[in-house]
Amino acid sequence: MRFASHDAPKPRRAHRSEPVILFAVSNLSFVIAAEDVQEIRSTDSLAGAAVEIAEPLLEKVHHTMERAHRTYYIVNGCAHFSLRIARPTLVLIMRQVRVAVLVDRIERMSEISAVYALPRAFTGAERRWYRGLAYLDDHVIPVVSPTGFLTVEEFKSLDEQSSRDAVRQDLEGAVRT
Amino acid sequence: MSTREFAAGASFVLLQVGNRRFGLPAEIVSELAPPVRLHTFPHTTPLVAGVIVRRGRIVPVFDVSSILSGKSSFNHRFYLIAQRRAGNTAEASAIPLSGECELTTAEMRQPGDGRAAYVAGLLQIGDETIEVLDFEKLVNSSARQASESAPAEARP
């Protein structure tokens, strides 16, 4: 048995560094690849653009927004990670998926040299939430997967509800006129 | 655990969890590490308290004391790092310990009825009967038990 010394995790092979955004949700830090984020906006600037879902299907999705004629679902980061609800000030609009995520704040931009695999001991929803783990300034921080915020099934249910709501609003508009 | 491992004179690491001592087959134990920083982040896996960084690896920490002694081990003094099967490969995993470890050679006998499924056998050390843990079963059965008794909830 050995009494080992402390050291940082070693990447198995050299990787090019990856620009990342460090952000906080309920005072916990997360990392997301900068290329996964299309835009960062303040929640105040969303006031006119966000549409409240009358009967939310998911606890974490209460609003939608339209972008380039597509419906984006606004996911509350605290609710997604089952954390204490904090007051979000920013929204990260994803590039590849129709998701915008409410977060407390951006901590900073940085670069990571490797994404370490999530240990197999983790068997829950976190395997979907995270691409892996990053080691940054002596901290192990989860690297968020943009596709982990909503499952395919959740997208389908939300899209169906969105379509139904649109039809209902059209009908209501027609009745009023 | 195979019958070969029940052979007389096998080596075991005796570890202190709460007020009790348990045994682990020495062959799966890698090292005893100081109480380095526990890194935590939201997840839903029962028993996993977080991760530590050891020897260039990110090692998950299982808070088995909640199962073995009924309370979480926040005042631990060491991490015992052992190999456990994870799919087709072995993965280093850590257990927080509240006391010293001891290496011993002893004959393990069958646990008999009435013991938890994670008890692989028993060691008789003086007047003390020590349960030898099957690490894999301890983690898996306890995790299953926890997930069945409570819905998945993320823990930072």
Structure notes:
The complex is a heterodimer of chains A (177) and B (156). By secondary structure, chain A is of the alpha+beta class. Chain A has helices at residues 43-46, 77-80, 126-129, 152-176; strands at 18-25, 28-33, 37-42, 50-52, 61-67, 70-76, 90-94, 99-103, 105-112, 130-136, 139-144. Chain A has one domain (18-176): OB fold (Dihydrolipoamide Acetyltransferase, E2P) (Beta Barrel). Chain A is built from 4 helices and 11 strands. In chain A, the strands form 3 sheets. In chain A, strands 3-7-8-6-5-4 form a 6-stranded mixed β-sheet. The mean pLDDT of chain A is 90. Chain B has a single domain (31-146), classed as CheA-289, Domain 4 (OB fold (Dihydrolipoamide Acetyltransferase, E2P)). Helices cover 12% and strands 44% of the residues of chain B. In chain B, the strands form 3 sheets. A 5-stranded mixed β-sheet of chain B has the order 8-1-2-10-9. A 3-stranded antiparallel β-sheet of chain B has the order 3-6-7, with no helix packed on it. The longest helix of chain B has 15 residues, at 135-149. Residues 1-6 of chain B have low confidence and may be disordered. The interface between A and B is large, with 32 and 39 residues.
Task: Characterize the biggest β-sheet of chain A.
Answer: 6 strands, mixed
Number of domains of chain A: 1
Which regions of chain A are unreliable across 5 or more consecutive residues at pLDDT < 50?
Answer: none
CATH topology of chain A, which one?
OB fold (Dihydrolipoamide Acetyltransferase, E2P)
User: In the CATH classification, which architecture of chain B applies?
Assistant: Beta Barrel
Number of self-contained structural domains of chain B? 1
CATH fold name of chain B, please? OB fold (Dihydrolipoamide Acetyltransferase, E2P)
Tell me which oligomeric state these chains represent. heterodimer
Query: Rg of chain B to the nearest angstrom?
Result: 15 Å
Shape of chain B: globular
Amino-to-carboxy terminus distance of chain B: 33 Å
CA radius of gyration of chain A: 19 Å
By CATH, the architecture of chain A is named Beta Barrel
State the secondary-structure class of chain A: alpha+beta
- Mean pLDDT across residues of chain B: 84
Cross-sheet strand order for the largest sheet of chain A: 3-7-8-6-5-4
Q: What percent of the residues of chain A sit in helical stretches (DSSP H or I)? A: 10-25%
In percent, how much strand structure appears in the residues of chain A? 35-45%
Number of helices of chain B: 2
Q: What kind of sheet is the major sheet of chain B? A: 5 strands, mixed
